[in-house]
Amino acid sequence: MQWNTSLYDAKHSFVTKYGEDVLALLAPKAGERILDLGCGTGHLTQQIAAAGATVLGLDSSPEMIEAARREYPSLEFVLADATTFAVAEKFDAVFSNATLHWVKPPQAAVKRIADALKPAGRFVAEFGGTGNVAAIRKAVRSAFHEIAGEDKPDVYYFPSVGEYATLLEQHGLEVQAAWLFDRPTLLEGDDGMTNWIKMFSAGMLRGATTDQINRATAIAERTLRTSNYQDGKWIADYRRIRIVAIKK
């Protein structure tokens, strides 16, 4: 899928803002080598570099990588897939924020993460957990079925803590801490839900015409006003999984 990086940064800056908590958990140190897996437009990559670490930003989106290189020309960014990337020199840590729910098969990504880490290297990540944006996903699928008479598959990977911890341990990553928590997220402006659907539901609506997408978005927004519009503000029903693991 193609990413609209202007819309991403202008209307969904909460992705970076909430990622700062995960970055604090990573606690990057001067002299460390750190991989930012799914770096997006590079804002958290830059914060890792500001701590004195040598950081590599990796993303599978050409649009994201182009924007990151333009914004932070002194940093290194590479275009690569989380399920197939390889590194010549291993890292002290792999960091990932709001990315791994897009990545399938998850087993392939975990293997690459484990392979990229030095012994005792750490993996710190946050992404969508089981039940993430359940109301939004249901509304979008239902709206598309209403206008097109067909169902679109759910393209996301939203695991439970047990499921993901087991997967990590199968690849030699010992889980030190894991959380699954609700994080209702305020969306910007009265068109916040429309912008969210346009930004993050493109995968679910892949192959639909522009007219179908616009109509489905409008129907979904009307449906969600009963559940996700509170006191004049749009709320996305996020649930996040947060993981800290160490390579054995």
Shape: globular
Largest sheet: 8 strands, mixed
| Estimated radius of gyration | 18 Å
Give the DSSP E fraction (strand runs of 2 or more residues): 25-35%
Listing every helix as H and every strand as E from the N terminus to the C terminus, the arrangement reads HHEHEHEEHEHHEHHEE
Total of helices: 9
Mean of pLDDT? 92
Low-confidence stretches: none
Give the termini distance in whole angstroms. Answer: 35 Å
Task: Kindly state the percentage of residues in helix.
Answer: 25-40%
- Structural class, judged by helices and strands? alpha/beta
Total strands: 8
How is this structure best described in words?
The chain is of the alpha/beta class and 248 residues long. Helix content is 40%, strand content 26%. The chain has helices spanning 5-11, 14-26, 43-50, 62-71, 106-116, 134-148, 161-170, 192-200, 210-224; strands at 33-37, 54-59, 76-79, 91-97, 117-128, 173-186, 229-230, 233-247. Helix 6 (134-148) packs across helix 9. The two termini are 35 Å apart.
Task: Summarize the helices and strands and which ones pair or pack.
Blueprint: H1 5-11, H2 14-26, E1 33-37, H3 43-50, E2 54-59, H4 62-71, E3 76-79, E4 91-97, H5 106-116, E5 117-128, H6 134-148, H7 161-170, E6 173-186, H8 192-200, H9 210-224, E7 229-230, E8 233-247
Parallel strand pairs: 1-2, 1-4, 2-3, 4-5
Antiparallel strand pairs: 5-8, 6-8, 7-8
